[in-house]
Amino acid sequence: MSRMVRFSVGALLAAAIAAQTPALRKGVSVQMPVTTSAVAMPDADLADSVVVAVTLRGTVYLEVTAVTPAQLSGQVKAQLTGRTGKRVYLKGDARTPYSVVAEVLDALRAAGVTAPILLTSQRGATNAPYMPPMGLEAPLAPPAPDAAQAVTLKAGSGQASDAELKQHARRGRPVVLQADGTAPFGDVVHAVDVCRAEGAKVFLSMQGK
Question: For the chain, which residues make up each domain, given as ranges?
Fold first, then answer.
């Protein structure tokens, strides 16, 4: 009898864990930037989420379909029609030149997306059966009116040091990151991560890309 009870409890526990773990959606595999301040984005795993991927070679995917930036803009806009508040998730390879990602960001902005979520890998991640996607919100410049006094810092070539990024971020002013197009996307995400870890709101500038 005790053996049957243990089996039943184990089966119920397994069923409960399975019920809480969403089915992993199909997607394009890339080497995402590693961050420390990203937050859980479980909605990115939902079947109807909008996920855009940029591979190391610069190929752009909407879900698992390769698209051009022009196609991406139209298709994302169509998917967002009538879905107020729907987020768009960008999964870029950390080694991809930022100029390629910036072209995608331009396409997303043309589709009405002003604050995409940059999906990342989290430093110190565990081997748990299921870990929700992690990400950082990165509003696109021009910043909101309340960010008129924002400080502009460089990411990539001539990038501010982590100490400088932290110093400016602590002042409570919004930070606008102006990225060099040749910089790896991971360097840009790192700068976003450092500033957000200090509590600053960070905008991605599309100038100088």
Answer: 24-205
